[in-house]
Structures are given as C-alpha cells and as structure tokens.
Amino acid sequence: MSYDYQIAVIGGGSGGLTVAAGAASFGASVALIERKSELGGDCLHYGCMPSKAMIEAAREVHQAGQYSDFTESDYDRLFTSAMERVAEAVQDVQNHDSKDRFIKLGIDIYEAEAQFIDEHTLRVGEETISAKRFVIATGSSPMVPPIQGIDSIDYITNESIFSLRKRPASLGVIGGGIIGSELAQAMSRLGVEVTVVEGGQQILAKEDKEIAELAEGLLSEEMNVITGAKVDRLESTNEGVKINYTMDGSTNSLNVEKLLVATGRKANIDGLGLEQAGVETSNGSIAVDAAMRTTQRHIYAVGDCNGSMPFTHVAGMEGKIAVSNAVFGLSRKASYERVPWVVYTAPEIYHLGLTEEEAKDQYGEKLLTFKTKLADNDRFMAERHTEGLVKVLTTNRGRIVGAHAIGEGAGEWMQEIGTVQALNKKFQAISNIIHPYPAKNNAVSQTADLYWREKLFDSSLNEALKWYVRKFR
C-alpha cells in the first residue's frame, strides 16, 4: 500500500521538531502538523524560554534592589521592562525555529488540528493525509483543578502570565511545584507580594526531602509560603480574587489581585481520535513502551503526551529514540535513570536519579550518602552564597544512584556528576580529576573525597596502613 508520507509528526514542539528534522535528514518524506501558527511548542512560548528570561530579569532587579531603594513606580517600570524583555527573548528563539528552516529540509507543514480517521489516516483541517508511521508529540497544557468557583474568576496560568504588562500588587499561587515556585519567586523579585498555597506538607514534593526543606526556608524569606492547605473555594472580588482554604482544621482566606494556577500538567490528547487508530491511553496519557511505541507498533508518542517526564530535554531524547526506531526499524529504548532536571529558583536545585528516601528503600544498608555544605567551600564563601548543599547517593562500591544539590548555579556545576554516571564511571573517580581552584565544582570534588575518607581513612585498612608506615617507613 502506498502512503502520502513515510512519517507524519503531530505536534511542533521540542519532541516533534526533533523527530521531523531527524527523519527528513535521513531521507524520509515527512509531514509536520501543528495546530498553532508558530512552531516551538510550550517550552518556547509558555515554559522554558519565557520563564528563564523572566527569572533572569527578576534576578537583576533583585540584585539592584540590594543597593537601591526602589519606589512603587520604579517597580512598575521594571516589571513592564522585564515582561517586554521576555517577549523579545521568545521572538529570538522563535526565529531559530522558523518554518522556513523545516521547509528547506523538505518537510511539508500543515497548520491545522489533526485527528485519526483510522490507524494510517489523518484528517488535517479540511484535508486527509496518510502515513506509514506516526509520531505523536502534542505536549501538555496546564491542569486546572475542579475548585469551587474557579470557573467564575479571572485566573492566569503559565500560558498567560507572560502576557502581563502591568504589575499586580499581589499574586496568589496555587501549587508549589517547579512551575509555581519558579514563577512565584520571579514575580516576588519584580515587586509583587506573593503567597504560595500548597496542599502538601512541603513545596517541591518531587525533590529530595532535605533539599526541598532547605529550598522552602530560603524561598520563604522572599515570599509567603503556606503548606498543608486545601483550597476550598475561590471568589471574585472588586480587588481581584479571594482564596478560601482550610489548614489544620481551620478555615482561612486570602485576598489577592491576581491568581496563578500551577497545579500540574495534562496531556494534550483530546480530539486526536486515538480510539479510531487503536491507540490506548493510561492515566490520561498515551501508553508507550520503552521504545516509544504505542499499542499500535507503527505509531509512537514522545514528550509530555506520553506521561513520562515533563521536561523539554526528555522530549528531545525520546524524539531521537523515536526517529531511529521509526526510520531504521531499530528497537532503541529510553532509560530515565540518568535524566537530570533543574529547578531554576534562586538558588537552583539539581536533581538526578533517586532521592535519599527512595534510595534507602531500594538499597538499604548498601546505600552510602555523601554531603558537603556550600558553607565549607571557598568559592561560595568568597561570593557570600553559602546557603546550599551537595548530596550524592551511591552503592557501597561507588555506583551513583542519586545526586542532588541546592546552590548558586547548581544546574551547571553539578552536571559533572551526571556525566560521570552516564559514562558508567564510579563516583570516587571524580577525586582523580583536577579541578581548577576555586571553581564552584570543587564542591563536587570535595564530596567525592568523602568516599575515600569513609572507605579508606575511616576503615580498618587504614589502621593496617598506619602500622606499616610506623614499622617500615
């Protein structure tokens, strides 16, 4: 049977663009379907790019504010300037992901909604196209919880917050995960009174508990953080929004000008007609195996829509796997044990592998934990950024099973551990690498030195070595 295309990619975000460009580069005929007018997906328009641009602008305002007393009008001006800067950053990246780049690769781009008619056919707007294989990369969107009154108020999400040009006096944030924490701190630094309302007992629930507790303490110095609070009802007021919540059995309320809902993400799979293609779902996402195949072997799903890990770099990794499997018929499999992520608060949080709690459950007495406080590192002492911690978890032979840190720029200098793990090297190998003094990653080598201290200097073998030196040297 002949098809219009060898591969049809649904979704023009990070995962979809990786697949489309890769497949076209290998000579496949490719259709790329994106329902929005521009390529780039959530990361470019509502996620990574605008949030990091705003975080950087907010950092600069925060630093300047330590040496100047800003007035309310100063903050109004700085807020507007910061948000305009965000828009400029998004446009710069958008130019890199322009349609022309993909058209030059020979890719046919369709700007329309896509829906499966059957397992090899799509309705794309007013057209119908067929493909031998498909890759679904439709991403995710903000999940809005069914809170009483939410449909009657004017709230914002990460998809609309970057459209603000006028500084709100106050902001309530429902949800203390990565998105909520990053945006809350940035808004606080831009002169907004921020209160985070989190249902769990701590914010950043997916992080190592010790790291999250330290982060919560530091963030609480810049904004209000309320944990263990259940939002019961939302009301529209003349001034904005009233948040009614229950905490420790008592009813409380909070009035804010703007409300940011940051309670997680949901896969964008509604309207795709997956059932008509025989593609099954699980827990609201497309079910895939380790090779990124759905329940139909010629249909793959990558990125947020498959419910794996909601990060751009993961979508890119999965996209590369899908390309090799779909184009060349390979069976490469995704592994998430070595995938790090970073929370871009200040200070940053680095996360790789298991948390200490998870590692204890899995390895028990075979687990070794090594920690270094940044207060014990010369570079961080010199720069007065001593609030932080490095924590590395290994087996008793030094195999890295988890690495976590909170500190200034942790997302950069901690990646050394991720590289060592990816190369199948043991943690103690870092001790043999000469680090320039006083680079920040000396905190990593300091932590690696602890392995030898525990395994050698604090062991019975050390006593034997001491005896040998005294007796024969």
Mind sketching the topology for me?
Elements lengths: L4 E6 L3 H12 L4 E4 L7 H5 L2 H18 L6 H25 L2 H5 L4 E3 L3 E5 L2 E4 L2 E10 L3 E3 L27 E5 L3 H12 L3 E5 L11 H11 L4 E3 L2 E8 L4 E7 L2 E7 L1 E4 L3 E3 L6 H4 L3 E2 L2 E2 L12 E3 L10 H17 L11 E4 L4 E6 L2 H8 L3 E7 L4 H6 L5 E7 L4 E8 L2 H4 L1 H8 L19 H16 L2 H13 L1
Parallel strand pairs: 1-2, 1-6, 2-3, 6-18, 8-9, 8-14, 9-10
Antiparallel strand pairs: 4-5, 5-6, 7-15, 11-12, 12-13, 16-17, 19-20, 20-23, 21-22, 22-23
Helix pairs in contact: 1-9, 3-4, 3-6
Q: How would you describe the shape?
A: globular
Distance between the termini: 82 Å
Relative helix content: 25-40%
> Mind summarizing the main beta sheet?
7 strands, mixed
Q: What is the total tally of β strands?
A: 23
* SS-based class: alpha/beta
Helix count, per DSSP? 15
What gyration radius follows from the Cα positions, in whole Å?
Answer: 25 Å
Strand content: 15-25%
Low-confidence stretches: none
Mean pLDDT, nearest integer? Answer: 94
How does this model look, in words?
- The structure is a single chain.
- This protein has 15 helices and 23 strands.
- Helix 1 runs parallel beside helix 9 and helix 3 packs parallel to helix 6.
- Strand 9, helix 7 and strand 10 form a beta-alpha-beta unit.
- The model has no long low-confidence stretch (mean pLDDT 94).
- Helices cover 35% and strands 25% of the residues.
- By secondary structure, the chain is of the alpha/beta class.
- The longest helix is centred in the first third of the chain and has 25 residues.
